[in-house]
Amino acid sequence: MSSSTTRLQKGPMVPVKTLRVEVLDGPDRGLCLETDQEVLSVGTATSNALALHDETVSRFHLELARGNDGISVTDLGSSNGTLIGAARMDRGVVPSGTVLVLGHTHLAVGDGGGGSVELYAENELDDLKGDTAVMRRLMAQVATAARSTAPVLVIGESGTGKELVARALHEHGPRAGEPFVTLDCGALAPNLVASELFGHERGAFTGADRQHVGAFERADKGTLFLDEIGELPPELQPQLLGALERRRFRRVGGRADVAVDVRIVCATNRDLRADVNAGLFCLDLYYRVAVVVLRLPPLRERGADIPLLVRHFLRECGYSGSVETLIPEPTLEALQQHRWPGNVRELRNWVEATLAMGESPELSPLSAQGAPQSDSDAELFALPYKDARRVLLDGFERRYLKHILEASAGNVAQAARKAQMDRTYLIKLIQRHALRPR
User: Over the stretch 88-103, which tens digit does the pLDDT of each residue have?
Assistant: First the structure.
């Protein structure tokens, strides 16, 4: 038996709370679903866990998650909103037994009868590390998904380790000996994305002085990892969909089709379902890349894993001394309470800085809105440029939109005039940040 097969042996089963959803009124009255999955999506698209036939419900309307404090409800930028009584809600936690209104549909959400899920047998799968149940459950899901060649969409905040999941899927799958090619869709100029994906012929455009082999060809027989798939320009999304469906494409400026056999793994820190609702992401492409969906928890939701990660990073850096001498227990406890906006990548940078300086850098969290406090530049600058930029931009956009909507009493047309913005673009930003005019 190979070492890879041994590592993928089944782990223990643990009890979990389940989530129960029942349609009390509407076209699907009487429909009921109970699940032990971390999240449950509701909408008219067939890929939802609870697919409805109510025309007043959006394709991806809302997401439910079972937590210790109740049931988390997140509206996915739906057209008609999610209501409790007469009050709209974008995001919140509700008690068991709450009735939600989605268009003409009334949903009762509550606790189920309980179930059990499998955890991974160990606390690491390649570079994925964790003792917490949420991480060992994820590793079990990765190990299972690795055995197939189905497309996988990895969802998680920046710095959570999405590429590590993609590599584990490749290394423990049937294509392990073949190429693993990464393409970051968010780091390319829009006019270069097609060339980087599909390649180009000599003379295809100004500066194309030789043939270029794109990521699809380089990944033939192996795995193509498309990072930040949500940043792919809308005009290129149909081209990618066509290449995935036909398993062939043409280089930019080419006349002959190129056949390829690749497994696709995509990653994003955005909610593509909300982007589908907003018309920013192609629904058919979403169906194609999200056959299997894996969700990486942010570091703040698995703080108990931080001591394990700190020890791992110190070993990787060549440190062989006592961890407690370098990082005292009070500091280690403080690390577990920190919010880590840059997630595991930020923790690694912190560990490296501690090792280099011989003392721990001060922890100075970013504000809840994502904007840095005056004493947190060091933490922000520790992030890669695109992550630091996204933290600042997302925080600014959200605060600006809230301000301009409040100043306009929720009137989007008036808000667009005040902001001197195109009204359609303003609506897309409002949907992207899951805000709602009041």
Answer: 988 889 999 999 999 9
- Tell me the pLDDT of the chain averaged across its residues: 86
pTM of the full structure: 0.78
339-365 burial: b if 16+ Cβ within 10 Å, else e: ebbbbbbbbbbbbeebbeeeebeeeeb
Among candidate residues 196, 180, 287, the one with its CA nearest the CA of residue 233: 196
CB 309 within 8 A of CB 302: no
d(CA 158, CA 156): 7
Q: What are the residues whose beta carbons fall under 8 Å from the beta carbon of 9, sequence distance 6 or more? A: 121
Residue 354's SS3 state is: helix
Dihedral sign computed on CA atoms, order 130, 384, 315, 329: negative
Determine the Cα–Cα distance for residues 307 and 80; give it in Å rounded to an integer: 45
Per the DSSP assignment, residues forming a β-bridge with 14 are: 117
From CA 139, how far away is CA 37, in angstroms rounded?
14
Give the tokens for residue 398: 């959200």
Q: How confident is the model at residue 112 (pLDDT cuts 50, 70, 90)?
A: confident
Helical packing angle, 412-419 and 385-407, nearest 10°: 120
CA 55/CA 310 separation, integer angstroms: 50
**C-alpha span between 289 and 162 (Å, rounded):** 15
Reply yes or no on whether the pLDDT at 6 is more than 90.
no
Q: How far apart are CA 154 and CA 161, in angstroms?
A: 10
Nearest CA to 425 out of 315, 281, 279 is that of 279
What would the two tokens of residue 170 be?
């490749």
Give 378's pLDDT tier (boundaries 50, 70, 90).
Answer: low
- Residue 263: which of 381, 349, 159, 170 has the closest Cα? 170
Over residues 150-169, the mean pLDDT reads: 95
The arithmetic mean of pLDDT across residues 146-155, rounded, is 95
Rounded to the nearest 5 degrees, what angle is found at the Cα of 232, between the Cα atoms of 65 and 188? 125
Residue type, 265: V
Query: What are the DSSP calls for 92-109, one per residue?
Result: EEE-TTEEEEETTEEEEE
Residue type at 113? G
Length of the chain (residues): 438
Q: Which residue has the higher pLDDT, 307 or 204?
A: 307
pLDDT at res. 61: 96
H or E stretch covering 16: strand 10-16
